[in-house]
Structures are given as structure tokens and as C-alpha cells.
Amino acid sequence: MIEAILESPYINSLPTLFEGLKMTLLITIAGLFLGFILGGLVGLGKLSKNKLIQGICTVYVEVVRGTPILAQVLFIYYGLTEDLIGLSINALTAAIIAITINAAAYIAEIVRGAVYSIEKGQREAGRSLGLTEKQTMRYIIWPQAFKRMIPPLGNQFVISLKDTSLFSVIAVHEVLYMGKQYYNVTYEIFETLVMVCILYLIITIPTSIILRRLERKLDV
Amino acid sequence: MIEIKNLHKSFGDVEVLSGINATIKQKEVVCVIGPSGSGKSTLLRCLNLLEEITSGQVLIDGTDLTDPATDINKLRTDVGMVFQHFNLFPHKTVLENITLAPIKVKRMSDREAKDVAIPLLEKVGLSDKADAYPDSLSGGQKQRVAIARALAMNPKYMLFDEPTSALDPELVGEVLQVMKDLADEGMTMVVVTHEMGFAREVGDRVIFMDEGIIQEEGNPEQVFVDPQNERTQGFLSKIL
């Protein structure tokens, strides 16, 4: 019985798939980290009173959100040739860039929405006590806004994680790509894809549960 | 002294204040009454520049709020404000709500700020709530914390914007009592209120506003018992 399980095509695919999972997580985490920084800046830009900065950031968000990530990554990987930009981008870099710019566009909206969602009385209370605009943002608005960003950011993690599967088209060795490589040899397509999906779920379901708990705890 | 000179305020095309002239003297308690939409809250919010002034002047101890050279943040430390919806900082404890501005604006140490805050909490009867978060307080308690928070900056003036309008009826009294104590200590106060009992008992002067202008003002007895203006008569007959 135990031997049968150990020898099953489900289990046999795992070492290969784990290799892919590491890559999937690397791209997701690196992309989200950079996306958070870029998205934070773009979000601040959208809140800026400077119309030019606000305009640039709005265009960025609309362009990125309005085009499919698959088209974006093909554009970055094949479209931006060495002739055009003077350096070559490998598949992994292209994937991380694609996640970064994509997550950044959504995170920018998360940041902006969270700041906007803080009741205007909070700002007024801060200013009426003599705090400057900057101090009011730093000590009153941001701490509350950050809390409200956590659930949608967790959501973005799940979305970005799943988006990485698209990068199999540029042969990034993420988990779906590794699965395809594996079943092309073994022809165990059903079993392999079941395991690929289980690996995704092992990450996404606990994330959702943690988020829901956090949401309740933070009361947002 | 607060001097309001020909104050106009418009939101877009809508003129909310159409030439207000008033003076609030030291230690005076002025209650502003009037129907909703009469501009009384807007007037109050112009006194610490939460609303930009369209034209006219507001002078606080001679400093012109409309002068671009005026350090508005410094001036606001002299003018405390209490809001209808409390606007406590929900991510901070009661004590932190009170000490934030003294620490960040007046550069007090945590210790000094606490020494300011604790007696104020006692004064509003909430010493035991120092470490509580605003969410766990009743409306009346929240408003008393908000008063303590404003007082922590040691302001010369206190502005109250319908401080009891969002409270359950049974909680109104505790907030009015704190305000009355404050008035008795000689705080200069401008109170926008629907509490006619308070206006009559505590107010040195009552201002009745309607349609963006001061329709009538005088001592409470005179305004409440023998209003001269037709609008005042109409308003009082509806609410008294």
C-alpha cells in the first residue's frame, strides 16, 4: 500500500514540481516586494496635489491595468530587444519585471483607496491640534491606512502568485512550466496537473485563511 | 480676542457666509444657534481655518488668519476644537490621543506630556480609561476625551462644533457638565449647539444665524425670552 503511494505518478512528479514552486515563489515575492515599493510611490503620486505627477501616475495605472499581463511579459521579453534598449533581459528578469509593474499598478490603487478611506475628520482633528500636514499623514492617516491595506495586499499576493503561471510562455521554470515539461516525458498529464494545482492551493488557501483572521482581528 | 470682520465663505457658487461681523472677548462663552444649513458650523470652522476664508478677515489676538505669512499651525495650538463626531484617533489609546499633539507639536517628552494628560483625564472623569482604545468608550466618554485632547495643547480658545449632537440623549449631560466646568474656569468658548438649555444657562451671549448672516445676538435671556428678529422668533417657536 505504502509502496503503491510512493510509486504513484502523483508523488513521482513532486521533486520536479518543487523545483518549479521555488521559482514561482521567488518571482512572486521579488515581484511583490518591488511592486510594493513602486506601487507605494505611484499611489503617493496619485494622491499628490501636483497635477503632472498625478497625471503620469494615473496613466501608468490605467495602461498597466488595461492590458493583459501575458501581453506585457511578451512585450518585455521579446519586444524590448537588445537593439532597442541596449541590454538583454533574461526570462526570469522579464517575469519579475512583469509582476512588479503589474502588482504596482494594483497596489497603487490599494494605497490610494486606503488613504482616501480614512474619514476626513481624522485629518481635521490632527490639523486642528496644530500638527502639520506631514505630521498628520505620518502619525494619524498612514497608521490607519496601512491596516486597511493588509487584506487587499494579501489578495494581491494570491493574484500575483497565480499570474506567474503565465510565464511558462517564455520558458521561466515556474511550477506550471515544470509540470508541462514533466508530463511531456511521462504522459501523466492528469496526475501532474492535479499536483500542480494542489501546490498552488497549498499556498493560496492558508493565505486566504490567515487574511480572513487578520481582517477580523484588525477589524477593517 | 477673536475678531471676525465681514467674513464671506462660498463653496463653489453657493455662498454660505454672507458677511459676518462679530467679536468674541476673553473669557466669554458665545453660543451660536440656528437652523441647519445656516452656516454656523462653517463659521466655526473658519475660526481655525479648517475652511478657507473666501473674503474678509478673522483676527485672533490680532493675528490675521488670512495673512499668508501667518503660521497657521502655531495659531491652531491656541484654538482647540471639539467635533460633532469626536474624531478620536482609533489606533491610539485614550492617553496617546491626548499626548500626541503635545509631543509632536510642542516637543514635550513622553513624561511631560503624560503629566499634562493625566490631570486632564481626571478633570473629565476618565482617569481609569487612560489605556483604553476609543472603540471601547461610549459616545459621551469619547467626547470627554476629545475635550481633554484639545485642552492638552493649553489653548486660549475652545471651539465646539455641535459637541452633543451625535450623542444618545442620556449621555448629553456628562459632556455639557464638562463644558460648563470649563466655562466656569474662564475658558473663552464658541459653541455651536442645539442645546438651548446650555446656551441659556452657560452662554454669556447667543448668536442666532440664518442664511449665512447673524440675524440677532444678545444675552441669552434677551434672545430666548424676547427675540426681536422674525426668523429668531420662528426658529425658537419651533424648538422650544
From TrEMBL, chain A:
PROSITE patterns: ABC_TM1. The chain crosses the membrane at residues 23-44, 56-78, 84-108, 157-177, 189-211. Keywords: Amino-acid transport, Cell membrane, Membrane, Transmembrane, Transmembrane helix, Transport. It comes from the Bacteria. Belongs to the binding-protein-dependent transport system permease family. HisMQ subfamily. One of its GO terms (biological process) is amino acid transport. Pfam families: BPD_transp_1 (PF00528). Its main location: membrane. GO terms for molecular function: transmembrane transporter activity. GO terms for cellular component: ATP-binding cassette (ABC) transporter complex. Residues 21-211 form the ABC transmembrane type-1 domain. This is Glutamine transport system permease protein. It is found in: Cell membrane. InterPro entries: AA_ABC_transptr_permease_3TM, ArtM/GltK/GlnP/TcyL/YhdX-like, MetI-like, MetI-like_sf. It comes from Sediminibacillus halophilus. It is a multi-pass membrane protein.
TrEMBL record, chain B:
The keyword NADP does not apply. SMART domains: AAA. It is a peripheral membrane protein. It is found in: Cell membrane. InterPro entries: AAA+_ATPase, ABC_ATPase_HisP-typ, ABC_transporter-like_ATP-bd, ABC_transporter-like_CS, MetN_ABC_transporter-like, P-loop_NTPase. One of its GO terms (cellular component) is plasma membrane. Its main location: membrane. The keyword ATP-binding applies. Residues 2-236 form the ABC transporter domain. Pfam families: ABC_tran (PF00005). GO terms for molecular function: ABC-type amino acid transporter activity; ATP binding; ATP hydrolysis activity. Keywords: Amino-acid transport, ATP-binding, Cell membrane, Membrane, Nucleotide-binding, Transport. It comes from the Bacteria. Belongs to the ABC transporter superfamily. This is Polar amino acid transport system ATP-binding protein/glutamine transport system ATP-binding protein.
